[in-house]
Amino acid sequence: MLTENLVALQVVVPLIFAPVCLLLGKSRHAWACALTVSWLALGIATLLVTRVATIGTQSYAIGAWAAPIGIEYRVDMAGALIIFIIAAIGAMVMSYARRSIEHEIAAENSGYFYACYLLCLTGLLGIAATGDAFNMFVFLEISSLSSYVLISLGTTRRALTAAFQYLVMGTIGATFILIGVGMLYMMTGTLNMMDLAQRLPGVDDTRTIRVAFAFVTIGVSIKLALFPLHLWLPNAYTFAPSVVSAFVAATATKVGIYVLLRFFFTVFGIHFSFVAMHVGEILMVLAVVAMLVASLVAIFQDNIKRMLAYSSVAQIGYMILGISLATSAGVTAGMIHLFNHALIKCALFLCMGNIFLRLGSVELHDLRGLAQQMPWTMAVFVIGGLSLIGVPLTSGFISKWYLVSAVLDAGLWPLAVLILLASLFALIYIGRVVEAAYFSKPDPTAKKVREAPASMLIPAWLLIGANLYIGVDASLLAGIARQGADILIGAGVP
Amino acid sequence: MSAATTLLTCVAVPMVMPALIAALHRRPNAREAVSLLGSGCLFLMVFSLLDDVRQGSLPAIDLVSPVPGIKIGFAVEPLGLMFALLASFLWFVTTVYSIGYMRHHHEKRQTSFYCYFAIALGSVMGIAFAGNLFTLFIFYELLTLSTYPLVTHAGNTAARRAGRMYLGHLIGTSVILLLLALIWTWSLTGTLDFRAGGILEGTVTPGIASVLLVLFVFGIGKTAVMPFHLWLPAAMVAPTPVSALLHAVAVVKAGVFTLLKVSIYIFGIDFLGQIPATQWLMYVAAATIVLAALFALRQDNLKLRLAWSTISQLSYIVLCALMVSPLGIIGGSVHIVMHAFAKITLFFCAGAILVTTQKTRVSEMTGIGRRMPWTMAAFTIGALSMIGLPPAAGFISKWYMLLGAIEVSQWVAVIAISVSTLLNAAYFLPVVYIAFFHAPPDAPDRVDINEVKEAPMMILLALGITAVGTVALFFLSDLPMALASQLVGGSR
Amino acid sequence: MIGLAFDILSWVSLLIGAIFLLVGAIGVLRFPDFYSRLHAVSVSDTMGTALILVGLMIQGGLSMVTVKLLLMFYFMIFTGPTAVHALAEAAIEGNVKPFARKTGQ
Amino acid sequence: MEHLINIVLLGLLMLAGFAIVRTKSLLAVAMLTSIYSLLSASLFVVLDAVDVALTEAAIGAGISTILMLAAIALTSDEEKAPRHTPLLPLFVVIATGAALIYGTLDMPRFGDPAAPAHRHVAPTYLQDTPTAIGIPNVVTSVLASYRSYDTLGEVTVIFTAGTGVLALLGFRPRRRNTEDTGRKKLVILRVVAKLFFPLILLFALYVLFHGDYGPGGGFQAGVIFATGFILYALAFGLSNSQQLIPHQLLYVMAAAGVLIYGLVGIASMLLGGKFLEYQVLANDPVTGQHVGILLIETGVAITVAAVVLIIYYGFVSRRPAPGDI
Amino acid sequence: MQGPLGLYNYWIVIVLMMTGFYIVIARPNLIKKIVGLFVFQTSVFIFFITMAKVEDGTAPIIQEGVNLYSNPLPHVLILTAIVVSLATTALGLALVVRIRESYGTINEDDIHVQDEAS
Q1: Domain boundaries, position E103
Q2: For residue B449, pLDDT beyond 70
Q3: Using the beta-carbon criterion (under 8 Å), do E53 and D111 form an inter-chain contact?
Q4: H-assigned helices in B358-407
Q5: Which of A342, A362, A338 is nearest to A260 (CA)?
Q6: Cβ of D107 under 8 Å from any chain A Cβ?
Q7: Do E69 and D48 touch (CB under 8 A)?
Q8: Looking at the domain assignment, is residue E91 inside a domain?
Q9: Residue A141 has pLDDT above 70, yes or no
Q10: Which residues in A lie closer than 8 A to residue E37 (C-beta atoms)?
Q11: Backbone dihedral region for residue B75 (phi beyond 0: left; psi -120 to 50: alpha; all else: beta)
Q12: How far is CA B273 from its chain centroid?
């Protein structure tokens, strides 16, 4: 029963336990429940990845209604990779969460928090697993609505406005997607992605399909914060509770990118997307601008969470750049970076959570000399930061390596220079923090703080460990990503 | 212990030493004993590899492969061994020196100083024994990062500014240019292994090879070829042992070493000759030689003057690496050693003067030779070697360089070397002259100005060793010459 | 024949209902203050909808539809006036003053 | 005739839309929104979407309007003029609209029976529903069986909203006798409310169980159910209505609905089927479908009713903030 | 109705959509924004339902003697979307209430001013 229903269980288990979490209320049981479920989801995801790797793409007809009639869950290598990283980040963040949540969120709200967290996880996993365009919209909304709530629970009032801004932009994005899906349905009569892929070539020379493509792309771009539609992101990441920043930054935009991949390659097909619609050129320009501008803006931020948020916008640029090449190497690079960036950003935001727990601030000038007091936390930041820059032996280097070689393969060497230039900007903004924490004298009036508790350090170090492992041996990840990319490029031939 | 294991140990020992050093941070004596012991052991281990290499066997070991076609692995070859021998030997000497310097100069945070120093040396070993360009690149970056805390050791605003300059130049060039070149090479050839005769020949057009060469030469920012040279003077805010070992020997030599490796094993000397950019880059190097020497002339701060001199001298080696001449390669390789001994002596002397008299400016050093005769004698030897006069080691390398340049009729190089020799004399001899033949000023501290008040014993010991080494290498140049010849012989 | 008579009856009923509604709407627009507007809308609305429902019932004949319409009729009869009453009550509580022509001048 | 009604309704919708843009008083905007929603519900009836019309009327015109009014009561009524010129938004809107109109040019004509959307999957639903599911309302069969997973997602969405409102606004039960004093005059309202309260609940049950045969189903039923309580709360005060249904029970109901739905899915897995494969719930596949649909519709109704009430109570039990700055 | 006029329904719906969209992006009042989203989404629902209509068809409830029905699938999708819209509206309004409590205003421009000042 377990193995054949694995795909469904992946999404349904967190879904069913979300209400349970609500009922458990403010006690620690809610946390325990969320923790167990997160690890369960990670376990299922691991099984799923191995299953997909051994016997190929998993298709699951929900309610036993075969594909175009019913809703299909379809997990190929790319989807499995996304599911795995979401589940892994989820498990890490939940292991970390208790102390941070006790500190940042009022006790009476903690039950709601854990419930919303599980709902968000459900939504994200659902998006990655589904093979149905409308079902994707539904799960997108689950994840979005719950992340609005999660963000609004931040400690300052600006969290509320950030969540509101996100809600407005997110809903516009979702509505755009809905319009696009509606047009697709109108022209083909189906909502199933594989079926769409088969039926679209007959009608893809119509204005309706072109507009549908544009609307889906814009809608998803809002969700994944593609420059210049990223305006919601910096505030949302800055003012959300630390745990939420870590979780959302590592997963939500990644899922957006996955959705984009699905639509570009599986649904519309590489020819329509990149040859007929020229989306590659447009995305490439936007990605490069995102990389450079957002990195530059990040340099001038004094709030470190905000800095990391802008850095995320820039890193999304890297991923999109890889995708915009529309080559196997490019998509592989995009997916590798997607995975790696999730690990890196999650660790960095967890690190911010540690600092906020002890210091009550993540402003740059409050961090002076912090490395002496919180050496383990700051070590996480340094390694994570180096990874963001792309220093060898960290996972960030692997991403950059694949990305630059993909760009060079496509004969676009000026882009390679720009990519590396953007990583220099990363060096500067990470360097500012490191310089403050390690090489500046602490403010004499500042209070002494202790190192964060082990329960918060271990998850961050696990992420860093994974990061370093990938930096040393990326063959497994690269293999999976390559396999996923080939399936995507090959228009979904399993 | 097999040669491969020794190889690994050589890289690993300095990397694990910080743990020991940090553990002993409350007991300075034990801490420094560990440092000394470690550096000594390292030298002996590197030395033990010499036999293998001389017999022509080149032990190698591969560890992991992060990206298909790319390995992290180590291998020994003559040039690397020469560099490793040099660095490990001078590390030992510098450790001796550091103990004297750091204690007498009352530096803070000595433990972290020794830790980062050890890591930096480990990185140098990694560079020296890197089995492929990728491994080399990793340790190259690691070296930059581990020396950054040493540059900013003082912790004040000036040091932090210098640190930014340092990181900005070195990481900037290496990430944008070198990494690009690396990935490009990899995507063209599918490998980054060092191979005799190069890997690029036959796979790329001279046009692309030109671009690659430019990327490599400027990307290896540690060679301090203009216009990416400003980091080196900036790094002089670091404590003197750092300037001495790292910024006269380890870091900058890692740069030119990398360049030599690239030109020998990635391009191949023969292929290099077919690349149009080579000639232009040689002009850049020649210009750097002359211009940096002119800048050195204008510096009053002794350490800065030495730094500019280093920039100038490094470009000799860059010039040799691009000269497409076996004699030039020999000259360049040997110059790594010769210049290292001389320059470290000079820096040791500058540090000794600083510790003893708190003076940093050349114009203040009038008559200092009477007070610190041993120190200034060593300084003189170093200066002679810099200029390239016998009986100092610098003569030998310069001789081969000139021969090489003449062999391939690179007259610009010949002129640059000759002019810079004159300039070297012009900026070093006045120091010697002032120190020995100028009357000292009225001593404010009422000590007898003619009384000999030398630097601490440990410092003297260290600079004595290197000064003697500078002279000795003139007479005993067989070992480096043999290794260098083996290098050229191997590439033919 | 009977059918035609029912039809005419139903249409007349529908038409008168519609006129009532229209008059009520005009009243809302034309009357000067809250209470008189409320008056206009409440009376005519109840009557208008009632007539329309009756007209529809005649159309529906003896069927399930007529039963449903009857239920709706029942609902309308109760809820319309009650809602208006509640509105007026709320207006008084909210100190909405009736319009009064100024005397003198 | 249908076209005429269609055009009139669309025209009225446009009027309502423009009025919403122009109107400054937010209370009036809320009412206009309600009118807009009701008009679209009427349009849905004309366009044969009776189920959707019922839902839109209940949710869009009903609950949403109540929430907007409650929110306005807690904030402020007047809208300030924007500081920036609306040129950029106007440009964006016109560009988007132009793109959409461009997109319509290759669409099948309105009502065209040969449109691809009506030829591919939909006929299967229409043909198979009587035999495979055994109920006449195809919308219900698609909603609750063919695409029941979407509906599970939908219940989860509404559950998320409930949790979110709880987290944002809290939910404190009021003490008795704090607010009832001023309401002595509401005799008529109370009598009518008492009269209608059971009827509304009854009607909700009718909508729930009749959903297989006519327009209706879990959502509509849940909303109507909640409306009954909202009416009660309006007439008799918050605390009295909360005595009727304690807030702990609402939590349990909100969670229970989702759980019922999910567990039906799990149960069908345990019985050897796929997730939400109702056929395995009974010996006869069609009976299985009936059981499954009934169960999940009940789950939906419970959650929707509870969440709507949670949201309503969340808003109205909050004290209004002091005046605008 | 044939010819391009057969699309008039869609065009009006697009105007309606854009009305809502305009309210969202042009109005600084937060409640007005939520209203705008509501109008936008409701108009998209009309768009879906319009496409489901089949000329001379009836509501998709199977009856004897009828064999032309409107397309039930968009109806189902919109049922779901309506609930999503309710959820969004409720959550957005809850946020507005909280924003008003902590900022004292629901005007986006005023909120910006306060955020800049802090």
Answers
A1: 4-53+70-117
A2: no
A3: yes
A4: 368-371, 373-387, 394-407
A5: A338
A6: yes
A7: yes
A8: yes
A9: yes
A10: 168, 171-172, 175
A11: beta
A12: 26
- Write the DSSP assignment of B98-148 as a string of letters: HHHHHHHHT-S-HHHHHHHHHHHHHHHHHHHHBSBHHHHHHHHHHHHHHHH
The predicted-structure confidence for B386-400, as pLDDT tens digits, reads as follows 888 777 788 888 888
- pLDDT for the residue A285: 93
Q: Is the pLDDT of residue A26 over 60?
A: yes
Number of separate domains in chain A: 1
pLDDT of residue A171: 94
Q: Residue A439: enclosing H or E segment and its boundaries?
A: helix A413-439
Name the pLDDT band for D181 (thresholds 50, 70, 90). very low
Which residue from D minimizes the CA distance to E23? D21
Domains and CATH numbers, chain D: 1-78 (1.20.120.1200), 137-320 (no CATH)
Contact C82 D189 (CB under 8 A): yes
Q: What integer is the mean pLDDT of B411-429?
A: 84
Peptide bond before residue A228 is cis, with ω within 30 degrees of 0: yes
Question: Residue A187's closest chain D neighbor by CA?
Answer: D116
If one compares B462 and A185, the residue with the highest pLDDT of the two is A185
Contact (CB<8Å) C89/D196:
no
What residue spans define the domains of chain C?
A: 2-93
ipTM field: 0.86
Best CA proximity match to A49, nearest among A14, A15, A83:
A83
State the maximum Cα–Cα separation within chain D, in Å, rounded to a whole number. 67
Q: Which position has the higher pLDDT, A276 or A46? A: A46
* Cβ within 8 Å, pair D74-E97: yes
For residue range C11-56, what is the model confidence (pLDDT) as tens digits? Answer: 999 999 999 999 988 988 888 888 888 888 888 888 888 899 989 8
pLDDT at D179 over 60: no
How many angstroms separate the CA atoms of B212 and B178, rounded?
A: 9
Cβ of B36 under 8 Å from any chain A Cβ?
A: no
Domain assignment of residue A59, yes or no = no
Three-state DSSP class for residue A270: helix
Chain E contact for A246 (CB, 8 A cutoff): no
- What sign does the dihedral B77-B80-B83-B87 (CA atoms) show? negative
Domain presence at residue E60: no
Chain centre distance of CA D14: 23
In contact, A85 and A253? CB cutoff 8 Å: no
Q: What's the CATH code of the domain at E22?
A: 1.10.287.3510
For residue A293, give its domain range: 278-494
